[in-house]
Write a structure and sequence with these properties.
Blueprint (H helix, E strand, L loop, with lengths): L40 E2 L14 H4 L9 E3 L2 E8 L21 E5 L13 E3 L19 E9 L2 H5 L3 E6 L2 E2 L1 E6 L2 E6 L6 E4 L8 E9 L12 E3 L2 E2 L3 E6 L4 E11 L4 E10 L4 E7 L5 E8 L4 E8 L13 E6 L5 E6 L4 E4 L2 E4 L2 E2 L2 E5 L13 H13 L4 E3 L7 H10 L2 E5 L14 H4 L7 H15 L5 E5 L8 H13 L5 E2 L12 E4 L3 H10 L6 E6 L10 H10 L3 E6 L7 E4 L5 E4 L27 H9 L3 E5 L7 E5 L9 E9 L2 E8 L15 E9 L11 E10 L7
Parallel strand pairs: 26-27, 26-33, 27-28, 28-29, 29-30, 31-32, 32-33
Antiparallel strand pairs: 1-10, 2-15, 3-4, 3-6, 5-13, 6-12, 7-11, 7-15, 8-14, 9-10, 9-12, 16-17, 17-20, 18-19, 18-21, 21-22, 23-24, 24-25, 34-35, 36-37, 38-39, 38-40, 40-41
């Protein structure tokens, strides 16, 4: 895979760029939707899982979206930016015949600041970069992006009377939508999807969609994550054709039985109206294993499918079955299913009955040229790099990620702590009761619960997700309890995490940030509550970090309730730009004329801004490697090999050893290797036996022969220095 990336030069800040110098008009008398706490969404459909409708089973099992009844609206749109929503020149931009010929082109997905529009990127860690007055945001300084695109609906969709839905996977921050000049609705929650039924607004031939995106809305107070403030339609936009009688949503749960050897698959399907429905379960070779059918007078249908002698899904053995749901002849949905069970048992976080250790990272969505609009190949490369560096878990800090990440995690094998799009730590800088502003304010309850609902309803069917998280650094209050109660009312199969709930009142696991090893050991040895401890952030990777990793990892394996953690963080967030004389570099806070800013605090990752490894990633790989090589006894003649996998044996690895004298390998041996003896040199110089562990066969994420771990045992000490 090529590492080359198109260079995008981010221009210097300018208030006169593309509309920002225009005269502003007066604000309205009534509250606009985007600064009104009582309006979260208008006319949106209920949140649902991510799935596509296919015309046949053979098409559905390919998971090729181009074969589905989906029309991508991503691509090139027309664009115009104004300094506020009330600027006069774009008031009628949503009209069907509005002339956009003089407007700029813009890429969707994309962030407008990284495509030459507006004041440019701004980075703050804590402080809000506008006057804080929740839930109000400024009327005059609120850049507003106007997007327009023309498209044609496939003729067959119109003739067959399909329900047509437009879905936005992510828009930062709030936005209104029009189709053919008529308002569709409003939505906010930047990293959550929004979907509308636009059937009655569509026509044969040319159709036009217009979107007005607001840089700030009242929801922005809950989106104060430690990252760049960037705006726009930054994830995919699609038009879906659902048959008149269709699957509205479905929920998959797997419950293991008989000492985790057998299982029952529970399936709930919600239909637009009662209909005959057929379900198939296939293995990974598409061999049919189970079939069930129902014709129910109800629009909600339940299936229980028993399974015996099955393959279990884990991050080490990510076996996926294929579930095929059919309604009628031309409506087929395919969902990959991993049989696994997550539980808090004996005070431990267990998967399939076994304690696990999280060797994870916090991952923000970042690309050096495109910001949060991360291309699929770049995203996939991130996850492959994690797997090859022994990382087994991701915390989606601090919002639900691109839905394709979860498909990759299911396939490659990574545990996911899925986090709601919620952070308001800037409230903690106001010198008053942090929680009282939003988290413990009943007026914000619906906004908080909505973010939990959006997360769970979209991502519920992914086996990789083993923990839900209520967000990050937002104090703790009644609205977190309401989020927890909603999640537990819908999904009792996963534990819930939230670090700021220090006493774990509304969570199922304890969590801490940056506590020392000694503090953690004291906690788990003195606290008697039967809940595990997971470090949502530790060994900060900024500067010459991370450090002291081995001591943490040793504690994870010595104290059962210490079950690992997530390094802060995966990547530097530098944005590619150039100096005045044309030299390219990765900029951070303050490099784009952004004030206030928090400087280089955004550069604190295990990989550089272009997502190539730092020495810190190499150190982390070594500290968390799944095989330990130790000397047994007082002499090096016996070696102990410790398997630190949670589920896998070492059968998938090849062990080789060599004798290394003064840095040079003098002899090697390979094969089973684990119990064979070895010959040591007798030249008196410094020498070691070095064991390497490589993949015996290729996997989905690395070729055969790839090294995962190594260890050295000293055989001879170096000769003493002459007096």
């Amino acid at each position: 895979m090529s590492n080359s990336m198109e260079s995008v030069v981010i221009p210097e800040a300018s208030h006169e760029m593309l509309g920002l110098g225009e005269e502003k008009s007066h604000p309205p008398i009534t509250k606009p939707d985007w600064s009104n706490l009582s309006v979260l969404h208008k006319n949106t459909l209920p949140p649902r899982g991510t799935f596509h409708i296919y015309p046949s089973e053979s098409a559905a099992v390919t998971r090729d979206v181009t074969k589905s009844r989906t029309l991508s609206l991503s691509g090139t749109w027309k664009f115009h930016l104004t300094p506020s929503p009330f600027s006069p020149d774009a008031e009628e931009f949503h009209a069907f015949n509005f002339d956009t010929s003089k407007w700029s082109d813009i890429a969707v997905p994309g962030m407008w600041q990284l495509q030459g529009h507006g004041k440019g990127p701004q980075y703050t860690n804590l402080n809000y970069p506008w006057p804080v007055d929740p839930p109000n945001v400024p009327f005059d300084e609120n850049e507003t992006g106007h997007y327009v695109r023309d498209f044609e609906v496939p003729k067959s969709w119109m003739e067959e009377g399909e329900q047509l839905r437009v879905r936005f996977e992510g828009v930062d921050s709030g936005f209104h939508v029009w189709v053919n000049g008529r308002e569709v609705g409003y939505s906010q929650g930047a990293r959550n999807p929004s979907e509308w039924d636009v059937t009655e607004l569509m026509k044969e031939g040319k159709n036009r969609i217009a979107v007005r995106v607001y840089q700030r809305c009242d929801g922005s107070y809950l989106e104060d994550q430690d990252q760049w403030w960037l705006s726009g339609i930054f994830r995919d936009v699609n038009l879906f054709a659902f048959p008149k009688v269709h699957v509205k949503d479905f929920k998959v749960e797997t419950i293991l039985k008989n000492d985790y050897e057998n299982a029952v698959l529970f399936l709930r399907v919600e239909l637009s109206e009662p209909a005959a429905i057929k379900v198939k379960l296939l293995d990974d070779d598409l061999k049919p294993l189970k079939t069930a059918e129902q014709t129910s007078p109800l629009s909600t249908v339940f299936f229980e499918i028993p399974m015996e002698k099955l393959h279990l899904w884990t991050a080490e053995t990510p076996y996926l079955y294929k579930l095929v749901i059919s309604v009628g002849e031309k409506q087929v949905i395919s969902q990959r299913v991993g049989f696994r069970q997550v539980e808090i048992k004996d005070g431990l976080l267990k998967v399939n009955g076994k304690r696990i250790v999280i060797r994870g990272v916090n991952r923000h969505e970042h690309h050096p040229d495109h910001g949060r609009a991360v291309p699929y190949d770049f995203l996939r490369r991130d996850l492959l790099m994690m797997k090859t560096h022994n990382i087994n878990a991701i915390r989606t800090s601090h919002y639900i990620n691109d839905p394709r990440l979860y498909d990759l995690a299911d396939e490659l094998g990574l545990w996911i702590l899925d986090e709601a799009d919620l952070e308001c730590h800037g409230m903690g800088e106001l010198g008053t009761d942090f929680a009282s502003w939003t988290s413990d304010n009943p007026e914000w309850k619906d906004a908080y619960v909505d973010r939990a609902r959006q997360m769970v309803m979209r991502d519920k069917n992914h086996p990789s997700i083993i923990i839900w998280s209520l967000g990050n650094e937002s104090a703790y209050g009644r609205n977190h309890r309401s989020m927890y109660e909603f999640i537990k009312s819908y999904d009792k199969t996963r534990p819930v995490h939230y670090e700021a709930d220090f006493n774990a009142e509304s969570t199922d696991v304890f969590s801490r940030m940056y506590h020392s090893v000694e503090q953690l050991i004291e906690f788990v040895t003195t606290n008697k509550e039967a809940k595990p401890m997971v470090l949502c952030e530790y060994v900060h990777a900024m500067g010459n970090g991370p450090g002291g990793i081995k001591e943490y990892v040793d504690a994870f394996y010595k104290y059962p309730r210490l079950q690992g953690g997530f390094v802060w963080e995966w990547a530097n967030h530098g944005l590619r730009t150039k100096t005045a004389d044309g030299e390219e570099y990765y900029g951070y806070g303050g490099d784009f004329g952004d004030l206030p800013d928090d400087g280089h605090f955004v550069v604190d990752g295990l990989v550089y801004s272009d997502h190539t490894p730092t020495p810190g990633l190499t150190e982390y790989k070594k500290a968390i490697e799944p095989i330990q090589v130790l000397s047994e006894g007082s002499t090096p003649q016996k070696i102990k090999i410790i398997n630190r996998y949670d589920f896998a044996t070492l059968d998938h690895l090849k062990c080789e050893y060599s004798i290394v004298s003064d840095g040079v390998a003098t002899s090697t041996s390979s094969g089973g290797g684990y119990t064979k003896g070895y010959q040591t040199g007798d030249d008196g110089g410094e020498s070691y036996i070095e064991l390497t562990f490589t993949l015996a066969k290729a996997t989905t994420w690395a070729p055969a022969g790839f090294e995962l771990a190594f260890g050295q045992i000293q055989i001879h000490a170096p000769s003493p220095l002459p007096p």
